[in-house]
Amino acid sequence: MKKLAVGILAHVDAGKTTLSEAMLYTGGAVRKLGRVDKGDAFLDTYELEKKRGITIFSKQAILEWNGMQVTLLDTPGHVDFSAEMERTLQVLDYAVLVISGTDGVQGHTQTLWRLLARYKIPAFLFVNKMDLARERKEAILEELTRKLDGNIVDFGEQGTEGFYENLAMCGEAALDQFLENGMIHRDDVTKMILTRQVFPCFFGSALKLDGIEAFMQGMEDYMSMPDYPSEFGAKVFKIARDNQGNRLTYMKITGGSLKVRELIGEEKVNQIRIYSGEKFEAVQEAKAGTVCAVTGPSGTVPGKGIGIEEAGAMPVLEPVLTYRIQLPEEADAAVMLPKLAQLEEEEPQLHITWQEEAKEIHAQIMGEIQMEILKSLVRERFGINIEFGGRSIVYKETIQNTVEGVGHFEPLRHYAEVHLLMEPAEAGSGLSFSTECSEDVLDRNWQRLILTHLEEREHKGVLTGSAITDMKITLMSGRAHLKHTEGGDFRQAVY
User: What is the pLDDT of residues 47-70, one digit of tens each?
Assistant: First the structure.
């Protein structure tokens, strides 16, 4: 059976959750069709989601259809929760971008399209609400090819000459095949979709279940399962807590398999859960391709790679505003900080910080709706009413020229020295770290440790004390003492 992780993305109100519900209903995973406006959608399980009719947290549901098992990941459409959506992108095999037939391509739709290109995710398009826009099909298709990509092809026309003609325009090999045979093999179309040469587009109405079966058939026909290596690897994309307060690490197994009681780092996996909506099934083993949540590990973070898997890229969409968190008089900041740190694990973009000089707690926030959600989460979990005040803009700083910096740490019986080359990188590229230091000069283990210290925290710049960004930092040289150097010495030298 084909096992796939498929994410559903869209601008807010395009009908993403409604499409997920329709697919689950058509595939027999749910017996009753839930509705967002009635607050009974299978995937919007959180009270505020039901009340507001929007998705706030990414959820998953298992859907079986003919020969494929799909883990559907429904992501938030609202820009305030885009970091949650972006973290989910890193574990997808395919994405489904939902477009509203009545609204067409909106600003956030284009942002999502750029993110799909950045993470190289093959994409299918579903144009929803066509019951309200029957006359606009041609106009919508024209807008999609103009604003998103010229290789978006209407797959509702499969088998026709026009369909093959449009496909042939998307790649040279396809054109040769079309000129020779008058058609293009399904396997070749599947490959073109996988390599993002073609983007299949389907039209329908999720609420009326119109076009859903054809869309799911299209997914089964044209989606292929990746080849996974036999060595264990996994990618963490989300941290959450269940109703009992257990910490859940959501991950996708990208190689080998994971069994209960095995170690992740130095921590044991107590339970492996496969969620579908609010319910879960506990399993003994999760094989490659599975999206699961594990209990036990406490040191995992979103974006972290485990085993052979490398760490994910830093999110592109970041908050631009900092707020002061105002606690009620009876609440003690020292008690509240670790509790807020729990929320930061689940939403790393919050950047909860303690400002020692002003004795204040600060957080970075995307917008008004996120603020409201945070207030209600803190009230629900910890029984405390917080407010937000003192808004300011988040600044970052970088360097204009290449410079070599030397860090030297040598108190009594300690010793470490680190030489770093810092070069400006292009705007928006973030930080990258590498080493060009010979192992004859500095042992490989020390080099690894130095790179870990570079990556483990946000480093402050010298102009405004803001976090640094858009720099390439290379380890050029370093020195350790045979007797007196300890791991922590290199941390000091790096900082």
Answer: 665 565 555 566 688 888 888 889
Cα–Cα distance between 108 and 461 in angstroms, integer?
Answer: 32
Q: How do residues 468-495 score in pLDDT, each as one tens digit?
A: 999 999 999 999 998 888 878 888 999 9
Q: How many other C-beta atoms are found inside a 10 Å radius of the C-beta of residue 250? A: 24
Measure the CA–CA gap between 380 and 461, rounded to whole angstroms.
37
Tokens (6 digits) for 261 = 């009681």
3-state secondary structure of 123: strand
Distance of CA 189 to the CA centre of its chain: 27
Residue 143 near residue 104 (C-beta atoms within 8 A): yes
Q: CB of 127 within 8 A of CB of 211?
A: no
Q: Determine the Cα–Cα distance for residues 487 and 470; give it in Å rounded to an integer.
A: 28
Start-to-end CA span in the chain (Å): 50
Query: Can you name the residues that pair with 160 across neighbouring β-strands?
Result: none
Q: 259-266 long-range contacts, Cβ below 8 Å, gap at least 24?
A: 259/284, 259/285, 260/284, 260/285, 264/234, 264/294, 264/296, 264/297, 264/300, 264/306, 265/297, 265/299, 265/306
Report the chain (495 residues): mean pLDDT per 10 consecutive residues. 89 82 81 61 56 63 86 73 76 93 87 89 94 88 92 89 91 90 91 94 92 92 92 89 87 92 88 87 92 90 84 67 85 83 75 77 79 81 84 86 93 92 89 91 90 85 87 93 86 91
- Is the Cα torsion angle 234, 237, 239, 242 positive or negative in sign? negative
pTM comes to 0.74
Q: How many CB atoms lie within 10 A of CB 139?
A: 12
Tokens standing for residue 78: 């609202």
| Cβ neighbour number for residue 422 with a 10 Å cutoff | 17
pLDDT at site 486:
84
